[in-house]
């Protein structure tokens, strides 16, 4: 009986996940496949990579979704080493950085914001979640709800390799197309 209940719970979770994904707006742009000329070689061409479903921006620019939800990466900076009994230090060879973001709710409904929607990807392709450390950020972004017309600005802490010079910030939410900001 216990195995059956676990199976049914997993099945229900999968059904909910699929229904949420089915409602998400997705815009995918692709290039047309070039036509082959009549005398062309019969050799097989390399497969065309699947286009990324993402929006690309630079720091200081805003991504505006069709429903009025807007995101801005307002800043990116190193976090100076901190002192004190409980101050955290980054792992050897790493540094702490903060990403300052702004959410604007131009939709007609209350909407959620969450620091956990953000990732930092380094030049090696490693995606990092927010750093959980004892580092004081005066404007730390947490999570909450925004009324229509509301906005919130805050910073999120990440840990990156000390020599990293090509990291990108990535916004990933179930309801919106992925957005990426070049930080350098």
Instruction: Characterize the biggest β-sheet.
Output: 5 strands, mixed
Shape: globular
Taking pLDDT < 50 over at least 5 consecutive residues as the criterion, the unreliable ranges are 4-9, 11-42, 47-51
Question: Going across the major beta sheet, what is the strand order?
Answer: 1-11-10-6-7
What's the overall average pLDDT, rounded? 80
Any idea how many domains? 1
Q: What letter string, H or E per element, gives the SSE order?
A: HEEEEEEEEEEE
Cα distance, first to last residue? Answer: 56 Å
What is the second-level CATH architecture?
Sandwich
Which strand-content bin applies to the residues?
35-45%
Radius of gyration: 21 Å
Give a quick summary of the entry.
The chain has 184 residues and is mainly β. It is built from one helix and eleven strands; from the N terminus they run αβββββββββββ.
Give the helix/strand layout.
Elements: H1 2-23, E1 54-58, E2 62-64, E3 69-78, E4 94-105, E5 111-114, E6 118-121, E7 127-128, E8 143-146, E9 151-161, E10 168-173, E11 176-182
Parallel strand pairs: 1-11
Antiparallel strand pairs: 2-3, 3-4, 4-9, 5-8, 6-7, 6-10, 10-11
């Amino acid at each position: 009986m216990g195995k059956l209940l676990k199976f049914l719970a997993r099945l229900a979770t999968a059904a909910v996940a699929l229904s949420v994904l089915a409602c998400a707006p997705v815009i995918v742009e692709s290039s047309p496949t070039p036509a082959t000329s009549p005398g062309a070689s019969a050799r097989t061409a390399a497969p065309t990579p699947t286009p990324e479903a993402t929006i690309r921006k630079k720091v200081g620019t805003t991504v505006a979704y069709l429903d009025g939800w807007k995101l801005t990466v307002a800043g990116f900076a190193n976090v100076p080493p901190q002192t004190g009994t409980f101050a955290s230090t980054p792992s050897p060879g790493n540094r702490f950085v903060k990403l300052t973001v702004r959410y604007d709710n131009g939709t007609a409904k209350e909407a959620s914001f969450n620091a956990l929607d953000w990732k930092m990807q380094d030049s090696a392709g490693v995606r990092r979640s927010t750093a959980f450390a004892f580092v004081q950020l005066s404007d730390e972004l947490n999570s909450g709800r925004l009324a229509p017309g509301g906005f919130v600005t805050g910073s999120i802490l990440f840990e990156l390799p000390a020599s990293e010079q090509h990291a990108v910030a990535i916004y990933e939410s179930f309801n919106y197309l992925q957005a990426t900001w070049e930080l350098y």
